[in-house]
Amino acid sequence: MKHSTRITTAATGLLAAAALAGCTGTAGGAGATGQEDIDTTGELSGTVSFQTWSLKNETFTPYFEDLIDRFESEHPDVTVEWLDQPGDGYQDKILSQANSGTLPDVLNLPPDIAYPLVTAGKLIDLDAADPTLAETYVPGAWEAYTYPGVEGVFGLPWYLGTDLGWWNGSALEKYGFSTDDLPTTDEDFLALAVEMGKASDGRMPLLSAMPTIDQFASNDIEILDDQGEFVFNTPEAAAIVDDYAEAYAAGALPPEALTGDYGGNADMFKQGKVAYTTAGSGFAGDLASDAPTIRESVVPEARIGAAPLFVQGINVSNDSDNKAAALAFAEFVTNTENQVEFVQLALGFMPGTVDGSADAEALSASVDDPLQKQAMEIVSEAMTDARILTPFQWTDAMKTFMDQQLALAIKGDLSGQEALDKAVEYANANRIEQ
Amino acid sequence: MRSHRWFTPWLLVAPAVVWVVVFALWPFLNTVGLSFTDARPLSPGAFVGLDNYRRMADDDLFGYALTTSLVYVVVCVPLLTVLPLLLALLVEKTLPGITFFRTTFYFPVIASVVVVALIWTWLFDSRGVVNQALEWLGVIDSPFPFLVDRWGLLFVAILLTVWKGLGYYMVVYLAALGNVGRELHEAAMLDGAGAVRRFRSVTIPGVRTAMLLISVLVAVAAMRVFTELEVLSNGTGGPGGQSLSLVMLIRQVGQGLNGDIGYASTLSVALFLLTLVPLGAIAFMNRERKTSGAAA
Fold this sequence. Notes:
The structure holds 2 protein chains of 2 kinds.
Chain A: H1 2-23, E1 46-53, H2 61-74, E2 78-85, H3 90-99, E3 106-109, H4 111-119, H5 126-129, H6 139-143, E4 156-161, E5 164-168, H7 169-174, H8 186-199, H9 213-218, H10 235-249, H11 265-270, E6 276-279, H12 283-290, H13 292-295, E7 298-302, E8 310-316, H14 323-333, H15 336-345, E9 350-351, H16 354-358, H17 360-364, H18 370-383, H19 396-411, H20 416-429
Parallel strand pairs in A: 1-2, 1-3
Antiparallel strand pairs in A: 3-8, 4-8, 4-9, 5-6, 5-7
Helix pairs in contact in A: 8-10, 10-19, 10-20, 19-20
Chain B: H1 8-34, H2 51-58, H3 60-91, H4 98-110, H5 113-123, H6 129-137, H7 150-177, H8 182-190, H9 195-206, H10 208-223, H11 227-232, H12 246-254, H13 261-295
């Protein structure tokens, strides 16, 4: 009996240990420092897994198949296995891959999603792996993959984007407004939104979303201080929130926008329910297929405030068994020639290399549609000043919490200052780098 | 007859034991363990003692979520215990075309809760059918923002849960009512009992076991409500997170690459303990009834 009890105990212990290994996340090594050179000039061989984010479709699949074919013909002993993850739940997928040690060798991560993997030592320091890379890429985008307290650069800039403002000319005219003198500041925009809300009795709002951290940054409100503390609860930011509350009371913002359930600016714009939206230059094509009537009177303009810079990059897993081939493929995907070819399909985006972004006119040379061309020119011009407005430290949980507080403030249940104070307090209590 | 070796019984029960240990016992113990840490998805975290529990006590969002879940239990348990019984009594009669009504009442059960909740989102939108109807009837002057009002959102979610659950529990009651002997009703009628008296003295005792089962199922489901509020509030829990449920809060805290696994585990442990409260209360009430029934 004693014997069986011991066996049972031991078996249970082993099971528990096995389950522990499977159920809990463990940090993957001692961080990303100490990376050595990776030689990609020698004979490469083996298999490289490559993961993209929602890019397997009729537009991009032929591009990636051709890209992989060309790389494999240059390196006959290397096989690239391409997998694509759906847009929804990408973070969760990355998390499960990182936890189970099955991260693909080469993967596509924006800087904010890359950060937790960097701190867990899951990504290669590409600057250390190949010191010649730095001069190839657009400096602002290259720096997007550097993080305070961690030495190195952890992504190769792939494609860069920003957006512009789209106005529904006929909707503005219907309520007595013109597209000749459109606002260029948030203050003027909110004033117009209130007038439009009143004139249309709430039937044609200009606003369809609450203020964001981007908007505060765009208004030169400091988001983080030198110590990494969130400090955006300034009187200026509170005034923006209070202006939104006033706009809400005037019918310039629909109630459902307070829970982010107003379908997204761009969708509402296409449905003719809002008269303004922000979107990339590719929106001209969406309008052609989804809302041709609205497209006839649409006016693209530079976005109000600072242009945000959206960065997508290619990263290499530190768990890769084939780092040399993986790095070579990452460099191949992000070289100027391949990036230019890619953004000719992904209209409105710019290449992440210095040479590729220098020849912006070439990107729109093959475009015949005047509206599309006009939008691309606006984007191209905006890219020169575009900057990353949302810091990587700003997590989804912080955004959700701030949205909850802002919704209360815009409804009139809190002041803008109180809402922002709570948001900042929450963000500082949950800082990810601590 | 040959005797078995000592480990034969263990071998026979081993698959079940392994299943329970790996998929029930261990995750539970792991959650309890994590609730005392500051674990994040890619970091096992350090032991922080009762910090997460103290944080929970001071957390406004936990207070809102607890209120939401308790209101859900308090409202849904009586509604979904009594209304399906009345519905079952209506449709158990053998009348021409009654099958049509039985089937119709069951329809909401087979519909996807996500799809139904999305449709309800459009219905209760500020420009939705419900607001338009209320304005047309003169009940309201301007649209009422059901989906961005704390109690409005909760009202719509509870209405959805009740509407969707009625048919399912009605079927459970129909099965239970089939076991209540017709002769008991006839005897009661001969004794002069009216419809109400027969309902109280014959029908309810006959379906009491089913009532208890339904109360328990509804209480547990209400405490863990998620989908209805998630879809109706677009995952935000409404302005201020005031309409969050406990499960929504756990998801909000723990999801993503930077999720706070430690605190989310603390909330999960709290949810587990809180789920025991309505279960215990219902079991206690049933025990009292049995005791008083035996005494009588």
